[in-house]
Specification:
Number of helices: 11
Shape: elongated
Oligomer: single chain
Radius of gyration: 23 Å
Number of strands: 13
CATH architecture of the largest domain: 3-Layer(aba) Sandwich
Strand order of the largest sheet: 3-2-1-4-5-6-7
Structural class: alpha/beta
Distance between the termini: 85 Å
Number of domains: 2
CATH topology of the largest domain: Rossmann fold
Largest sheet: 7 strands, parallel
Length: 341
Amino acid sequence: MALILFAPNVHNGGGRVLLEALDQACGVSFDQAILDQRLGRVSRAFMHVATLYVQNRLLSRLYAEWHLWRSARQGDTVLCLHSLPPLLPLNARVVVLMQNRLMLERGSLCGFPWTIRLRITVECLWATLLQKRCTRYLVQTPSMAAVIRRWLRWQVPVVVVPFAPASTADSYPSDVYSLKRYEFVYVASGEAHKNHHNLLHAWRLLADAGLSPSLALTIDSRVYSELAQEIERHSRELGLNIVNLGVLAQPEVTQLYLSARALVFPSRTESFGLPLIEATQHGLPIIASELDFVRDVANPVETFDAASPTSIARAIRRFLGHPEHPVVICSGETFIDEVLK
């Protein structure tokens, strides 16, 4: 009975971190792995098992589906790490780790490029029509379990398994924590739901109030060129204390956490929110959206309405010790005096 890992589209972000952590923790348990070629040289995941690397092309993806169909036999278990069931029917057990919340919730895809909207729409259809082929779904948080149970049309078991990489905080000397280079960091890619535009707007509001906290971002300027240019404009033309560090390897992400005072996390939707886990592991205070997925895995010191730049700015001000005071309520007489001026 073989255990086969199927992850033909996992190559960056939290999916990649979990993939590599899975390899370190129990990679020897797998008999075969089908992985995305874009993992590249940075990842040495699953080098000790028979591995097929899939190119980011339609024919290569279809070949991977066919290869899985040919390889998986009755009694085998296939773990799908990319949130989708296999395209072809298998005799093996199929376990899907659902990591893509955008496929389950019918929210707006405004702000996404048309290519991404098309891909998500196709994947939604794929996942919905083939969900009956799954033996069980694994999710990482209770709120994600509630979402997937509302989405399911068939009685497929859903199990919450909050798997995350082990903490590396103990491997660093204690004095490294005193080297704070940035006041805030936001470790995230540039997809629309990560909500960078509202975060940048909040930083403009802070500047209007005479505050200039430093903020470090991790946007791939090649993939998200427009967002990267907007960040650069905010830094250069508006004088905001924001720097985009680009894509970082996991050891660099760890060093970034250690060099920051707090994590700000304005994302509107997450299946897990791995940076929330990592920040907690490193003892980093969290200022985040007041949403279920945040409370599933972390206890933020301040929260805000992710749809409101003003709310984000106010939470940052509270954390910095410069709260915005409520308006002073006037009397009726004062109101009438203003009317008569």
